[in-house]
Amino acid sequence: MKKAIGIDIGGTKIAAGMITQSGEMLMREEVESDPSDREKMFARVLEAVEQLLKKTSFSLADIEGIGVGVPGKVDCENGIAIFQNNLPWEQFPVIARLREQFGIERISIDNDVHMAAYAEWKVVQEKRNETFVYVTISTGISCSIIQNGTFFRGAGFAGELGLIPVLSKANDKENRRLEQVAAGPAIKKLAEMELQIDQISTKEVFGGYVKGACDYLPVIEEVTDNLAQGLYAISCLLDPHKMVFGGSVIVNNPFLLKLIKGKLRSYLLPEQQHILRQMSISTLKQDNGVIGAGLHVFGRS
Questions:
Q1: What does the pLDDT read at residue 300?
Q2: What per-residue confidence (pLDDT) applies to 139?
Q3: Within its chain, how far is the Cα of 99 from the centroid?
Q4: Which keywords fit this entry according to its UniProt record (predicted)?
Protein backbone atom coordinates (compact mmCIF):
# COMPACT_ATOMS: atom_id res chain seq x y z
CA MET A 1 0.00 0.00 0.00
CA LYS A 2 1.59 3.24 -1.17
CA LYS A 3 1.52 6.16 1.24
CA ALA A 4 2.31 9.89 1.20
CA ILE A 5 2.30 12.71 3.72
CA GLY A 6 -0.18 15.52 3.10
CA ILE A 7 0.31 18.91 4.78
CA ASP A 8 -2.39 21.59 4.94
CA ILE A 9 -0.86 24.92 6.04
CA GLY A 10 -2.99 27.77 7.33
CA GLY A 11 -2.60 30.93 9.35
CA THR A 12 -4.21 29.32 12.42
CA LYS A 13 -3.17 25.67 12.24
CA ILE A 14 -1.06 23.17 10.32
CA ALA A 15 -2.43 19.66 9.74
CA ALA A 16 -0.35 16.72 8.53
CA GLY A 17 -1.71 13.31 7.59
CA MET A 18 -0.54 9.91 6.36
CA ILE A 19 -2.55 9.31 3.19
CA THR A 20 -2.92 6.16 1.09
CA GLN A 21 -3.12 6.19 -2.71
CA SER A 22 -6.89 5.59 -2.45
CA GLY A 23 -7.38 8.68 -0.27
CA GLU A 24 -7.68 6.98 3.12
CA MET A 25 -6.17 8.94 6.00
CA LEU A 26 -4.31 6.58 8.36
CA MET A 27 -3.23 9.20 10.90
CA ARG A 28 -3.59 12.95 11.39
CA GLU A 29 -1.67 15.43 13.52
CA GLU A 30 -2.29 19.13 14.04
CA VAL A 31 -0.22 21.97 15.51
CA GLU A 32 -0.80 25.69 15.91
CA SER A 33 0.71 28.03 13.33
CA ASP A 34 3.17 30.76 14.24
CA PRO A 35 2.81 33.44 11.55
CA SER A 36 4.94 35.92 13.53
CA ASP A 37 8.07 34.96 11.55
CA ARG A 38 8.83 32.95 8.38
CA GLU A 39 11.33 30.64 10.07
CA LYS A 40 9.12 30.08 13.11
CA MET A 41 6.28 29.21 10.75
CA PHE A 42 8.43 26.72 8.88
CA ALA A 43 9.54 25.18 12.18
CA ARG A 44 5.88 24.51 12.96
CA VAL A 45 5.49 22.67 9.67
CA LEU A 46 8.44 20.45 10.54
CA GLU A 47 6.96 19.86 13.98
CA ALA A 48 3.66 18.66 12.45
CA VAL A 49 5.47 16.15 10.22
CA GLU A 50 7.72 14.91 13.00
CA GLN A 51 4.76 14.40 15.36
CA LEU A 52 2.93 12.49 12.62
CA LEU A 53 5.87 10.14 12.05
CA LYS A 54 6.26 9.53 15.79
CA LYS A 55 2.64 8.39 16.06
CA THR A 56 2.81 5.95 13.14
CA SER A 57 4.86 2.85 12.50
CA PHE A 58 6.15 4.38 9.25
CA SER A 59 9.36 6.23 8.50
CA LEU A 60 10.28 8.62 5.70
CA ALA A 61 11.65 5.62 3.81
CA ASP A 62 8.11 4.16 3.70
CA ILE A 63 6.45 7.09 1.91
CA GLU A 64 6.30 8.06 -1.76
CA GLY A 65 6.62 11.77 -1.06
CA ILE A 66 5.11 14.85 0.54
CA GLY A 67 2.33 17.11 -0.74
CA VAL A 68 1.83 20.64 0.62
CA GLY A 69 -1.15 23.00 0.43
CA VAL A 70 -0.37 26.69 1.03
CA PRO A 71 -2.73 29.71 0.99
CA GLY A 72 -2.51 32.33 -1.72
CA LYS A 73 -0.54 32.32 -4.96
CA VAL A 74 1.86 29.43 -5.49
CA ASP A 75 4.54 28.70 -8.09
CA CYS A 76 3.89 24.96 -8.41
CA GLU A 77 6.75 24.27 -10.81
CA ASN A 78 9.44 25.90 -8.69
CA GLY A 79 7.92 25.06 -5.32
CA ILE A 80 7.62 28.63 -4.07
CA ALA A 81 4.90 30.21 -1.93
CA ILE A 82 4.62 33.56 -3.71
CA PHE A 83 1.98 35.56 -1.85
CA GLN A 84 -0.31 35.04 1.16
CA ASN A 85 -2.36 37.45 3.24
CA ASN A 86 -2.09 35.40 6.44
CA LEU A 87 1.47 33.98 6.40
CA PRO A 88 4.95 35.61 6.40
CA TRP A 89 6.04 33.50 3.42
CA GLU A 90 6.32 35.87 0.49
CA GLN A 91 8.61 34.17 -2.09
CA PHE A 92 9.34 31.33 0.36
CA PRO A 93 11.02 28.24 -1.21
CA VAL A 94 8.86 25.60 0.49
CA ILE A 95 9.91 22.57 -1.57
CA ALA A 96 13.63 23.35 -1.42
CA ARG A 97 13.48 23.76 2.35
CA LEU A 98 11.53 20.51 2.85
CA ARG A 99 13.94 18.59 0.62
CA GLU A 100 16.83 19.97 2.60
CA GLN A 101 15.20 18.93 5.87
CA PHE A 102 13.87 15.47 5.00
CA GLY A 103 15.99 14.35 2.04
CA ILE A 104 12.91 13.47 -0.05
CA GLU A 105 12.92 14.33 -3.74
CA ARG A 106 9.23 13.84 -4.50
CA ILE A 107 7.55 16.89 -2.98
CA SER A 108 4.66 18.79 -4.58
CA ILE A 109 2.98 22.07 -3.68
CA ASP A 110 -0.23 23.87 -4.65
CA ASN A 111 -2.74 26.36 -3.35
CA ASP A 112 -4.61 24.97 -0.32
CA VAL A 113 -8.05 25.36 -1.91
CA HIS A 114 -6.80 23.51 -5.00
CA MET A 115 -5.62 20.69 -2.75
CA ALA A 116 -9.02 20.46 -1.05
CA ALA A 117 -10.75 20.52 -4.44
CA TYR A 118 -8.47 17.78 -5.72
CA ALA A 119 -9.50 15.54 -2.82
CA GLU A 120 -13.20 16.17 -3.41
CA TRP A 121 -12.86 15.48 -7.13
CA LYS A 122 -10.50 12.50 -6.89
CA VAL A 123 -12.07 10.64 -3.95
CA VAL A 124 -15.75 11.43 -4.42
CA GLN A 125 -16.59 12.91 -7.80
CA GLU A 126 -13.88 12.01 -10.31
CA LYS A 127 -15.11 12.50 -13.89
CA ARG A 128 -12.76 13.77 -16.57
CA ASN A 129 -15.34 15.11 -19.00
CA GLU A 130 -17.01 17.60 -16.66
CA THR A 131 -16.56 21.01 -15.07
CA PHE A 132 -16.25 20.61 -11.30
CA VAL A 133 -16.21 23.54 -8.85
CA TYR A 134 -15.22 23.40 -5.20
CA VAL A 135 -16.22 26.39 -3.05
CA THR A 136 -14.84 27.04 0.43
CA ILE A 137 -16.70 29.32 2.85
CA SER A 138 -14.71 29.88 6.00
CA THR A 139 -12.52 32.73 7.28
CA GLY A 140 -12.27 33.58 3.58
CA ILE A 141 -14.15 32.59 0.44
CA SER A 142 -12.57 31.05 -2.63
CA CYS A 143 -13.14 28.36 -5.23
CA SER A 144 -11.20 25.98 -7.41
CA ILE A 145 -12.21 24.78 -10.86
CA ILE A 146 -11.34 21.41 -12.38
CA GLN A 147 -12.11 21.29 -16.10
CA ASN A 148 -11.86 17.91 -17.84
CA GLY A 149 -9.57 16.58 -15.10
CA THR A 150 -7.23 19.62 -15.04
CA PHE A 151 -7.17 22.70 -12.83
CA PHE A 152 -8.21 25.93 -14.51
CA ARG A 153 -5.64 28.43 -13.20
CA GLY A 154 -5.80 31.43 -15.51
CA ALA A 155 -2.65 33.49 -15.06
CA GLY A 156 -2.29 32.01 -11.58
CA PHE A 157 -5.02 33.69 -9.52
CA ALA A 158 -8.19 32.13 -10.93
CA GLY A 159 -10.92 31.06 -8.52
CA GLU A 160 -10.87 34.05 -6.17
CA LEU A 161 -14.63 34.01 -5.71
CA GLY A 162 -14.35 36.12 -2.57
CA LEU A 163 -13.22 39.11 -4.66
CA ILE A 164 -16.38 39.17 -6.79
CA PRO A 165 -18.56 42.24 -5.98
CA VAL A 166 -22.13 41.67 -4.81
CA LEU A 167 -24.89 44.12 -3.87
CA SER A 168 -25.00 44.18 -0.07
CA LYS A 169 -28.32 45.38 1.34
CA ALA A 170 -26.84 45.68 4.82
CA ASN A 171 -24.18 48.13 3.62
CA ASP A 172 -26.39 50.87 2.16
CA LYS A 173 -26.91 48.78 -0.98
CA GLU A 174 -23.25 49.11 -1.93
CA ASN A 175 -21.23 46.74 -4.06
CA ARG A 176 -18.87 44.90 -1.73
CA ARG A 177 -16.51 41.99 -2.24
CA LEU A 178 -18.26 38.73 -1.37
CA GLU A 179 -15.65 37.84 1.25
CA GLN A 180 -16.35 41.14 3.03
CA VAL A 181 -20.06 40.36 3.42
CA ALA A 182 -20.35 36.56 3.70
CA ALA A 183 -17.20 34.97 5.18
CA GLY A 184 -16.95 34.04 8.86
CA PRO A 185 -15.58 37.39 10.16
CA ALA A 186 -18.14 39.28 8.04
CA ILE A 187 -21.00 37.29 9.59
CA LYS A 188 -19.77 38.17 13.07
CA LYS A 189 -19.46 41.87 12.16
CA LEU A 190 -22.90 41.97 10.54
CA ALA A 191 -24.51 40.34 13.58
CA GLU A 192 -22.88 42.83 15.94
CA MET A 193 -24.19 45.68 13.77
CA GLU A 194 -27.72 44.25 13.45
CA LEU A 195 -28.03 43.28 17.11
CA GLN A 196 -26.17 46.37 18.34
CA ILE A 197 -23.89 44.39 20.63
CA ASP A 198 -20.13 44.56 21.14
CA GLN A 199 -19.14 40.92 20.85
CA ILE A 200 -20.68 37.77 19.37
CA SER A 201 -19.07 34.77 17.71
CA THR A 202 -20.04 33.40 14.32
CA LYS A 203 -20.90 30.13 16.04
CA GLU A 204 -23.34 31.95 18.34
CA VAL A 205 -25.01 33.60 15.34
CA PHE A 206 -25.77 30.25 13.74
CA GLY A 207 -26.76 28.73 17.08
CA GLY A 208 -29.24 31.53 17.69
CA TYR A 209 -30.76 31.11 14.23
CA VAL A 210 -31.15 27.33 14.64
CA LYS A 211 -32.92 27.90 17.98
CA GLY A 212 -35.41 30.15 16.19
CA ALA A 213 -34.38 33.52 17.61
CA CYS A 214 -35.91 36.11 15.26
CA ASP A 215 -33.06 38.60 15.81
CA TYR A 216 -30.70 36.40 13.80
CA LEU A 217 -32.96 35.98 10.76
CA PRO A 218 -31.91 39.23 8.97
CA VAL A 219 -28.25 38.26 9.36
CA ILE A 220 -28.70 34.83 7.78
CA GLU A 221 -30.95 36.29 5.07
CA GLU A 222 -28.29 38.85 4.15
CA VAL A 223 -25.43 36.35 4.15
CA THR A 224 -27.23 33.72 2.05
CA ASP A 225 -28.40 36.36 -0.43
CA ASN A 226 -24.82 37.58 -0.85
CA LEU A 227 -23.57 34.02 -1.35
CA ALA A 228 -26.29 33.34 -3.91
CA GLN A 229 -25.18 36.39 -5.91
CA GLY A 230 -21.57 35.18 -5.94
CA LEU A 231 -22.55 31.65 -6.93
CA TYR A 232 -24.77 32.98 -9.69
CA ALA A 233 -21.71 34.67 -11.21
CA ILE A 234 -19.89 31.32 -11.14
CA SER A 235 -22.89 29.58 -12.68
CA CYS A 236 -23.10 32.10 -15.52
CA LEU A 237 -19.38 32.05 -16.27
CA LEU A 238 -18.75 28.30 -16.01
CA ASP A 239 -22.12 26.48 -16.04
CA PRO A 240 -20.54 23.72 -13.92
CA HIS A 241 -21.77 20.12 -13.82
CA LYS A 242 -21.11 19.80 -10.06
CA MET A 243 -20.40 22.13 -7.15
CA VAL A 244 -19.16 20.95 -3.74
CA PHE A 245 -18.95 23.20 -0.66
CA GLY A 246 -16.38 23.04 2.11
CA GLY A 247 -15.04 25.30 4.84
CA SER A 248 -16.12 25.60 8.45
CA VAL A 249 -19.01 28.05 7.89
CA ILE A 250 -21.05 25.73 5.68
CA VAL A 251 -19.73 22.34 6.84
CA ASN A 252 -20.70 23.14 10.44
CA ASN A 253 -24.03 24.68 9.35
CA PRO A 254 -25.32 22.48 6.51
CA PHE A 255 -28.80 24.08 6.60
CA LEU A 256 -27.20 27.01 4.77
CA LEU A 257 -27.10 25.06 1.51
CA LYS A 258 -30.89 24.77 1.35
CA LEU A 259 -31.25 28.50 2.00
CA ILE A 260 -28.64 29.35 -0.63
CA LYS A 261 -30.33 27.10 -3.19
CA GLY A 262 -33.66 28.80 -2.56
CA LYS A 263 -32.21 32.23 -3.23
CA LEU A 264 -30.09 31.07 -6.16
CA ARG A 265 -33.14 29.55 -7.85
CA SER A 266 -34.67 33.02 -8.27
CA TYR A 267 -31.61 34.15 -10.26
CA LEU A 268 -31.21 31.11 -12.52
CA LEU A 269 -32.80 30.68 -15.92
CA PRO A 270 -34.46 27.29 -16.54
CA GLU A 271 -31.41 26.14 -18.54
CA GLN A 272 -29.15 26.90 -15.57
CA GLN A 273 -31.16 25.21 -12.84
CA HIS A 274 -29.51 21.81 -13.28
CA ILE A 275 -26.78 23.00 -10.90
CA LEU A 276 -29.27 23.05 -8.00
CA ARG A 277 -29.46 19.24 -8.17
CA GLN A 278 -25.66 18.93 -8.21
CA MET A 279 -24.74 21.10 -5.23
CA SER A 280 -23.56 19.26 -2.12
CA ILE A 281 -21.52 19.70 1.07
CA SER A 282 -18.16 17.98 1.44
CA THR A 283 -18.19 14.55 3.07
CA LEU A 284 -14.42 14.86 3.69
CA LYS A 285 -15.03 18.06 5.69
CA GLN A 286 -11.94 19.56 7.36
CA ASP A 287 -9.71 16.71 6.14
CA ASN A 288 -9.98 17.46 2.42
CA GLY A 289 -6.93 19.76 2.33
CA VAL A 290 -4.67 17.14 3.94
CA ILE A 291 -6.06 14.30 1.81
CA GLY A 292 -5.75 16.32 -1.39
CA ALA A 293 -2.14 17.24 -0.59
CA GLY A 294 -1.28 13.57 -0.04
CA LEU A 295 -3.04 12.45 -3.22
CA HIS A 296 -1.22 15.18 -5.15
CA VAL A 297 1.98 13.18 -4.70
CA PHE A 298 0.57 10.27 -6.70
CA GLY A 299 -0.81 12.25 -9.61
CA ARG A 300 -1.72 15.89 -10.08
CA SER A 301 -4.07 17.87 -12.30
A1: 59
A2: 87
A3: 26
A4: Kinase, Transferase
pLDDT of residue 52: 97
Ranges assigned E (strand) in the chain: 3-9, 13-20, 25-32, 66-70, 73-75, 80-83, 107-111, 131-137, 141-147, 150-151, 165-168, 174-177, 242-246, 279-281
- Regarding whether 243 and 135 lie in a shared domain, the answer is yes
Which residues of the chain, if any, have pLDDT below 70?
Answer: 125, 300-301
Give the length of the chain.
Answer: 301
Burial class (CB in 10 A: 0-12, 13-18, 19+), 144: buried
Contacts of 164 by beta carbon, 8 Å cutoff, 6+ apart:
177, 178, 230, 233
Residue 122 included in any domain: no
b/e for 196-227, b at 16 or more Cβ within 10 A?
Answer: eeeebebeebbebbeeeeeebeebbebbbbbb
In this structure, are residues 107 and 75 in contact, taking their beta carbons and an 8 Å threshold?
no
- pTM above the 0.85 mark? yes
Q: Residue 232 — φ and ψ, nearest 5°?
A: -65, -40
Q: Are residues 102 and 137 in the same domain?
A: no
Residues 84 and 225 in one domain: no
Residue 155 has what pLDDT?
Answer: 85
Q: For position 54, which CATH number holds?
A: 3.30.420.40
Looking at the fold, whether 144 and 278 belong to one and the same domain comes out as: yes
Distance from C-alpha of 295 to C-alpha of 254, rounded to nearest angstrom: 26
pLDDT, tens only, 206-232: 999 999 999 999 999 999 999 999 999
What is the pLDDT at residue 167?
94
How many of the other CB atoms lie within 10 Å of CB of 1?
8
CA 14 to chain CA mean position, Å: 14
Q: Residue 196: left if φ>0, alpha if ψ -120 to 50, beta else—which one?
A: left
Check residue 173 and give its pLDDT: 80
In a domain, residue 239? The reply is yes
CA dihedral for 89, 26, 252, 228, sign (positive or negative): positive
What is the residue range of 110's domain? Answer: 3-117+287-298
